[in-house]
Amino acid sequence: MNKRLVLFIPLILFLVMGALLYKGLFMDPKILDSALEGKPVPAFQLEQLEDSGVIITNESLKGKVSLLNVWATWCPSCKYEHPYLMRFARQKILPIYGINYRDERALAIRELNRQGDPYTKNIFDHDGRLGLDLGVYGAPESFLVDHNGIIRFRYAGPIDQRVWNETLLPMIKQLQAVAKQEGAS
Amino acid sequence: MMKSVFKLMGAILLSLTVISVYATPVDIYEFKSAENQKRALELAHSLRCPQCQNQNLIDSNSPVAKDLRLEVYQMVDAGKDYDEVIEFMTSRYGDFVLYKPRMEPKTYILWLGPIGFLVIGLLIGFFFVRKQRISQVEDQEISVEEQKELDRLLNRDEQ
Question: pLDDT tens digits, residue range B123-138?
Fold first, then answer.
């Protein structure tokens, strides 16, 4: 009886492999794990987009849970994302910092004047050095940063209402609760 | 006639190789030494572009690949060794950028899996062959009495 069962092992192995490979067909190879989750925002010292006299550093981001949003005027998906960011900014849930990535200052300012500015502050990353340190491989990308300046989550691709409701908002709520607790004690 | 065809084919092949040599993006970067250049190019070839997946840093035209390529060149020229460059890349872009995964608990199945399958295959083969041999030996163990009985049964109908 046992010997008969042994004969089924290859079939079972085949089915398991088949199931795994079938699942692989529906996985998006573009979604990469961020190597920076759990690590602090890399040190930077960059000009504010709107005012080259103001320097923003990684220390400026500490204190509050915030969202870092990498964007550029050359990026079509950022234009899709923009109205959603405007909506989230109006709700005043958390500060949204823009990282203007490999862009021209004049173009970026004009875009914000025309389409509206959802950002609390905009960091001007003309050379893409901060983007490189953040492991950015395309825009838009967003990083959820906790009150200690630690990156908690990276989302590659445009944020829309669904991503916000299902993924980001629950995490923001949780991080803000932690921040409040630590602030009180 | 045949000769000229060969000549033509040769010319086409030659032009193809020339094109492929110059098909990589041209960067203006001067290395401190030829040895640095060789090492940096080797490194850049072994790293995957995070933007256009399935192209290495040399093949890819994307801005990210260009930045990373230059970063690798500069690090090599600054005297950084292989591990430092790899660490720089993986701490930003993750293990994904490595074409050759590192040996660590997470990748044991990747590295040792094929060996495991080979061992399983050999074991199955070994037991299968041994079983076959045993049954062959059993086939020959038929006694004279049994053979007589068999013949009697086979011939019964004819009588």
Answer: 989 988 888 887 766 6
- B73: tokens are 């060149």
Does residue A26 belong to any structural domain of this protein?
no
Q: For residue B28, what are its two tokens?
A: 């203006």
pTM above 0.90?
no
The pLDDT, as a whole number, for residue B22 is 44
Strand residue runs (E) in A102-149: 121-125, 141-145
CA distance, residue B146 to nearest chain A CA (Å): 30
Q: Residue B76 belongs to what domain range?
A: 2-100
| Two tokens, residue B86 | 């790899």
Instruction: Compute how many other C-beta atoms are within 10 angstroms of the C-beta atom of residue B134.
Output: 10
Interface test with B, best of A17, A20, A137 (most B CBs within 10 A): A137
| Residue appearing with tokens 């794990």 | A33
Q: Which residues of B touch A35 (CB under 8 A)?
A: 90-95
Q: How distant, in Å, are the alpha carbons of A22, A44, B143 from that of B139?
A: 46, 82, 11
Give the helix/strand (H/E) hosting A153: strand A151-156
The bridge status of strand A141-145 relative to strand A66-71 is antiparallel
**What is the rounded distance in angstroms from the CA atom of residue B7 to the CA atom of residue B13?**
10
* ipTM of the complex in this document: 0.73
CA-nearest of A143, A142, A138 to A40 is A143
The CA distance from A3 to the nearest CA of chain B, in Å, is 13
Instruction: Assign A134 to helix, strand or coil.
Output: coil
> How many contacts does A have with B, using Cβ atoms within 8 A?
39
Amino acid at B146: E
- Shortest Cα distance, chain B CAs vs residue A132, angstroms: 7
Q: Are residues B21 and B83 in the same domain?
A: yes
Cα separation, A144 vs A30, in Å, equals 20
Q: Is residue A63 a part of any domain in this protein?
A: yes
